Amino acid sequence: FECPDCGGIITGFTTQSVFICEYCGNKIMATEVFASGAYGENLIFGYDFNMYKQALPFKITRAQAVEQLRRLVRENRDDFAGEDIEQRVESDLQAIYLPYLVEDFSLRTIVDTERGRFNLYHDRINWGLPQSTLFDIYLLNKLNPWDYGETAPFTPAFLEKDVQIFAPMNDEQLWTEPYRILYRDIPEMLNSEFGLNDVELLKWMTDSRRHQNSGINLPIWFLDKASEAKESDLQIRMAVNGQTGKAVALFLQAGKKDYTRTLDLYPPPEMSDESTIYSQPIAIEYKKEPFLFQASDINQVLGKHRSKFRRRFDRSGSMKYRTFVALCIHIALGLALSIFALSSSELRAEGVFGTVAASFFLAALSFGLTVAIMKGFDNLKIISARIKRSIRRFNRH
């Protein structure tokens, strides 16, 4: 509403009892504002005191968003077969502001693929992470990149044209959000960059650096699933980045793996230096302290294609490989003991089973003891390596 003294625009929440004009300092009681009726309202989903104070403006109009989604449907017609999606796009597309946190994120992980294992490094700069679990985080993540060079204070001008606003949520699921997104994104990136189809992330280390003013409301055109869709039906949700025009469709169906389709605006918009940047995933190799890792050529790191069974024993010194060898040896030992016991004595039929069982029981005990000893030696090696590293650090200081 307008300040009665200076005419400046005042923005507040219905829970406030007093409004203060930031232009002239005039104080106005809430009862006076409500009695006048000269005010506008926008519904906030969530707690208003959690609202972020920054936002990016909508640059993509509703007509442009509708056309972009129609292009996405035309280019992926098989995915939308039997769905009246274009009619829903025209009638149900909604403008919303969703809360995001902006972070820089670094990842180092051991990746197991059909062509061997290697250390992977990946950076995400100005990465926008959604702070609402009311919407699918994988769909919202696909709307990256954003250009934060156009950030402005969140004012009533952003709320025109029936825009819905969502406040940040205090949900424990959001703590694991970056890891769940990366666990899903990295295999897709490795498939796109290097043609790797069977990817598993084993161990990883991360470093996140949240920006000083990281909370921001981002503009999105959103289309929810059809209201009549059942849980067993194909559910399609779509969204358009309200700044860059990037379109995304998410396909969900019970019992099947969900997937997305994306379409960038053409020609692509110009982005400033403050936009989201994903680094190309690179292979790294451990060298020595203090320069622990060095970038490597991915083709030199990767070997020939290997089956899943072969990959489990791709290193002759691995615990899995040694356990497998020990198991084979002790099965052979159990058979040998059984044959020896049966050949060295005359037993009735009912005594044969007991002799064989006893032989394999002894072999199983021996196998368990062998595995325990191997595991103990591995733990001693780890402890010894840690002690050596501590001694080296102590000597350097």
Describe the structure.
- The protein has 397 residues and is α+β, with helices and mostly antiparallel strands.
- The chain folds into 3 domains: 40 residues, no CATH class; 240 residues, no CATH class; 82 residues.
- The protein is 34% helix and 26% strand.
- It contains 9 helices and 15 strands.
- The strands form 3 sheets. Strands 3, 5, 6, 8, 9, 10, 11, 12, 13, 14 and 15 form an 11-stranded mixed sheet that branches. A two-stranded antiparallel ribbon has the order 1-2. Strands 4-7 form a two-stranded antiparallel ribbon.
- Strand 5 and strand 6 form a beta hairpin.
- The longest helix has 48 residues.
- The protein is elongated, with a radius of gyration of 31 Å.
- The termini are far apart.
- 20% of the residues are buried.
- The model has no long low-confidence stretch (mean pLDDT 81).
List the helices and strands and how they pair.
Elements: E1 18-20, E2 27-29, H1 30-36, E3 44-45, E4 54-55, H2 62-75, H3 85-92, E5 94-113, E6 116-130, H4 137-141, E7 152-153, E8 164-166, H5 177-194, E9 200-223, E10 235-241, E11 247-252, E12 259-263, E13 277-278, E14 282-286, E15 293-296, H6 298-301, H7 308-311, H8 319-343, H9 349-396
Parallel strand pairs: 3-8, 5-8
Antiparallel strand pairs: 1-2, 4-7, 5-6, 5-9, 6-13, 6-14, 9-10, 10-11, 11-12, 14-15
